[in-house]
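palmitoyl-CoA hydrolase, Haplochromis burtoni. Tokens?
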Amino acid sequence: MDCSRAQQSQASDEVDKTTAVVEKQQHSQSKQVSKDVREGEKTGASKCTKNHLSRIMRPDDANVAGNVHGGNILKMIEEAGCIVGTRHCNTQNGDRCLAALVRVEKTEFLSPVFIGEVTHVTAEITHTSKHSLEVQVKVMAENILTGAKKLANKAALWYVPCSLQNVDKIMEVPPIKYASAEQEEEGRKRYEAQKMERLETKARPEEMMPSPPNPEKHTVGFSQSSLIHLVGPSDCTLHDYVHGGVTMKLMDEVAGIVAARHCNTNIVTASVDAINFHRKIKKGCVVTVTGRLTFVSNKSMEIEVLVDASSVVEAEKGKYRAVSAFFTFISLDKDNKPLPVPALKVEGEDEQRRFDEGKVRYLQNKEKRLSDKMRGQ
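Tokens:
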């Protein structure tokens, strides 16, 4: 009995020591964060303009072939951007606020990420205007068994800070310090360009047409897909509005279904054109995420994804367009090598118009990739 008591006492002492060490580390980390915030208030929040997240990829993050879903990567990118944006915007006096996502620039998926790899997501604020900020995010994938690392994704996101007291009140953004006047000017040009494109996209909402009852294979109607989702508390921010990352994940899932139905093979996200968030989606709303093919090349598929929302309790207000984007997918064989994509059978003037517009985007993106490759980017 005495021996048992001694062992229990020793175990209790070990637990107490471990707890003390953990509490000491947490206290030290808390003091460092507070110090960074205080220094940020004095220096234009330079200590609060970067953020880093890491997470190991698990089976529920990937498809049956082991490729991590592009939507999960987009969700991690948005989380990192929201953290650094919210932290930066709260380094000044006034109402506490939360950074709300309004736009994601064109995003390239440069390398696939697989189950068991660790994704390192680094987010940095690169430009601020009076009421918005740009966050550039880089995703590295690490094989922790070999130590090999690869650049998986790069993205640029735009946020606006919304007051926690009044979600419709947009707060002012603390300025950041730029390395040079040229860097500040380049950021201003990006800000003006994205502002113009957001306004243009918002001005041309288009209804998603219902698919025909018995569509022919490889037509737009054959692969068109929709997902209906009730927005719950776990989907939302402190404002009770949907996280941008949650919406992007749903959009990627629907686009993936469309691509898989068209080519009947393993598919992965190759890139995403600008994602524009037109209106907020509140907790309790029903969202309808619909995807349709707009253009198909020899080895890629462009899918338009539209997100419409409606209130369950205020049905009289009707449905509204909340988010829109174009996703590009590629088809892969069992060795993850690109496969030819079946041609798209276009029917009617509207489908032909969308196909022609998609072809223009495809050629522009192809030209840009070649240009970036020549510059070594």
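The radius of gyration is 23 Å.
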